[in-house]
Amino acid sequence: MERKSHMADTEKLLIIGSGPAGWTAAIYGARANLSPVVYVGVPKQNPAPILPGGQLMLTTEVENYPGFPEGVSGPEMMGLFQKQAERFGTRVVGQDITACDFSKRPFTLTASDGSTVQAHAVIIATGATADWLGLENELRLAQMGGGVSACAVCDGALPMFRDQPLAVVGGGDSAMEEASYLTKFASKVYVIHRRDELRASKAMQQRIFDAPNAEVLWNKIPIDVLGDEKCEGVRLKDTQTGEESTLEVKGLFMAIGHTPATQFLDGSGIDLTDKGYINLGDRTSNTNIEGVFAAGDVADADYRQAISAAGMGCQAALDAERWLAAQGIE
Q1: Is 100 a catalytic residue?
Q2: Which among 82, 137, 162, 189 is most buried, taking Cβ atoms within 10 Å?
Q3: For domain 132-254, is the CATH number 3.50.50.60?
Q4: pLDDT tens digit string along 200-251?
């Protein structure tokens, strides 16, 4: 096959997103001499802050990522990921990608400042954001590590939550998984649900009903989170009677869903699942469009962990490298 060098104004590899998946893809891509450029995004509010670096930017302590025996803060870890990627020549652009034209190669992408960029291969690693109630104190305590979280598997084993009463908001399978996980550490786990029946599968419901330290609070919605520096409780409202009550808990875990960051893909032709995640049809990172790959929470509705996102970023970079080589692009 005749080898052809990429055009000077066309990127070999463009990565959208700057969480564990994006930075890992950049590290592998840079070490493969693909000269990746990462569009890291811009800060925004929706209703919780969305920052370059992903959801870990709102995580005060990460204890389950290998290689950090004493734990590490989410922002510090993402900073280290970025430095490692930049060490090998990754370039960083502080813009969102707002539109993608994948109808012909090289692909054309539009940034939030109105500029366009062309790329031979694209890795989408824009992640997903946890859904929040939008209560002022909920978001404030979440940002300061005050006992409000959107990931029990990430945070539930922290010392601040052990042997304490905790609450989970939600009624689906994810909420039941979160609550079941917390029963291993908490003195009591309350599931706060706005209706009188759960949406979760019967098997998942039964795990909570059978847990001796779990209790479902029916027809309740949180209207305030109590506490200045740490969560001290939740103010609840009965959805049927309107009666208000206070539930004393030391931690509140939101499990009302996640929204994948795929809105910018409208009209791009990328195949999405019914929940808006990028659909990966096989065990690779390949999307339905040749030359476009996906990694991390934007394509993962099941695990949503930093380590699994990083692994997917590695896969996407390797898949992109092999695909570019097959195209004769070096």
Answers
A1: no
A2: 189
A3: yes
A4: 999 999 999 999 999 999 999 999 999 999 999 999 999 999 999 999 999 9
Give me the residue spans of the domains in the chain: 10-129+258-326, 132-254
Question: Looking up tokens 């066309």, which residue turns up?
Answer: 10
d(CA 135, CA 140) in angstroms, rounded, equals 9
Q: How many CB atoms sit inside 10 A of residue 317's CB? A: 29
Reading phi first (left if > 0) and then psi (alpha if -120 to 50, else beta), residue 267 is in left
The CATH T-level fold of domain 10-129+258-326 is FAD/NAD(P)-binding domain (3.50.50)
Candidate list 96, 100, 151, 297, residue with the active-site label: 151
Q: Which segments in the chain show pLDDT lower than 70?
A: 1-8, 46-49
Would you mind telling me the total number of residues written for the chain in this entry? 330
**Pick the catalytic residue: 154, 231, 297, 319?**
154
Instruction: Specify the DSSP element, H or E, that contains 246.
Output: strand 244-247
SS3 155: helix
Kindly state the tokens that stand for 242: 């309107």
d(CA 287, CA 270): 7
The verdict on whether 131 is a catalytic residue reads no
Q: Which two tokens stand for residue 292?
A: 């476009």
pLDDT digits (tens, 9 = 90+) for 291-326: 999 999 999 988 889 999 999 999 999 999 999 999
